[in-house]
Structure to design on (335 residues):
């Protein structure tokens, strides 16, 4: 690829899209030209990149002429409809939706873990699910040390994971309740303010949700570990930004807490925040806006022989979405 790339952001006005724009700027990604694409509603709206205002254009089949890398974050339906047009125009698509993640010819990449898989792309590279990315950022270094077999986990997922409308819903409900009104519901089937909902994504016949099964299916592909198992409960919580995951993991080899902490401490993209004597552990309020994930509460699991329990938090709009996508684009630029 040439030194500077023509980049398109599909869904540029969305919760992840605006973070993609900021991340390209913050990481000084070599951009020759930027196309900001969204629905017709946003045509003409202006977004700022490196001090310059750029008008948003309506996404059409013809939006990808000359585009080297197209970052998609406008939902699975848009990806299914438009990614092929981008690939036909010669763009490499980095797709944040779940549309292609399980396709055999689509690499599913967390650069700190499997950056080399980018080279096998056939035009589309998938960005994994946000909770899965945050979890494997802590789990993979532990896997390298002890060999992971299975996990049991619960997620605590921020409303911005549902897009900009999730933030609006929480804000509105808090205001309504504070003024003694009934909370109105648009995005979630139940009130999210002052509540937790054990329901993220659609239910499957098994009783798990699609989101819950992404952890097993996507982590298997990212870590090249077909036998990995994950039983997960995904929960939406009234937090604006950053997902937290409580994990109990069983390993092949005996574990040691000091080796586990060292493994996390020396891994890229994740920081150890584990000082319980001083009440120090990762919190979504602290991790929101940070590139690195944080892990803490690392302890010997009392129900597994070779087990560790831990708590990991990551900004799902950054490492769980925009940052990971831009890191993938950086790998594409190296090809
Ligand atoms: P728009 O702002 O014009 O609706 P979020 O995840 O925060 O809800 O954002 C979704 C993003 O995807 C927005 O940028 C939205 O654009 C964009 N989007 C949604 N549907 C389409 C579509 N059919 N074509 C193009 N962009 C779309």
């Amino acid at each position: 690829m040439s030194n500077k790339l023509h980049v398109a952001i599909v869904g540029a006005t969305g919760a992840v899209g605006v973070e993609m724009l900021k991340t390209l700027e913050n990481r000084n990604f070599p951009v020759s030209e930027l196309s900001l694409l969204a629905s017709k509603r946003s045509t003409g709206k202006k977004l700022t990149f490196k001090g310059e205002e750029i008008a948003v254009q309506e996404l059409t089949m013809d939006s990808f002429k000359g585009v080297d890398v197209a970052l998609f974050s406008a939902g699975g339906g848009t990806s299914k409809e438009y990614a092929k047009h981008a690939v036909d125009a010669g763009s490499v698509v980095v797709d944040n939706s779940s549309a292609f993640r399980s396709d055999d010819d689509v690499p599913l990449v967390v650069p700190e873990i499997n950056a080399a898989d980018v080279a096998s792309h056939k035009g589309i590279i998938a960005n994994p699910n946000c909770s899965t990315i945050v979890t494997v950022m802590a789990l993979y270094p532990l896997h390298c040390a002890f060999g992971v077999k299975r996990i049991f986990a619960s997620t605590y997922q921020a409303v911005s994971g549902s897009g900009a409308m999730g933030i609006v819903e929480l804000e509105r409900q808090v205001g309504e309740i504070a003024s003694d009104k009934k909370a109105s519901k648009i995005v979630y089937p139940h009130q999210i303010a002052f509540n937790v909902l054990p329901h993220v994504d659609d239910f499957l016949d098994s009783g798990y949700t699609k989101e819950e099964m992404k952890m097993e299916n996507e982590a298997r592909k990212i870590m090249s570990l077909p036998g990995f198992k994950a039983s997960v409960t995904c929960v939406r919580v009234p937090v604006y930004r950053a997902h937290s995951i409580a994990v109990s993991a069983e390993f092949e080899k005996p574990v040691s807490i000091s080796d586990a902490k060292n493994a996390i401490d020396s891994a890229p993209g994740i920081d150890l925040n584990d000082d319980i004597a001083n009440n120090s552990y990762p919190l979504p309020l602290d991790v929101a806006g940070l590139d690195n994930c944080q892990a803490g509460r690392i302890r010997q699991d009392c129900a597994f022989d070779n087990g560790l329990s831990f708590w990991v938090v990551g900004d799902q709009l950054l490492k769980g979405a925009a940052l990971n996508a831009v890191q993938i684009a950086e790998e594409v630029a190296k090809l």
Observations:
- The chain has a mean pLDDT of 98.
- The radius of gyration is 20 Å.
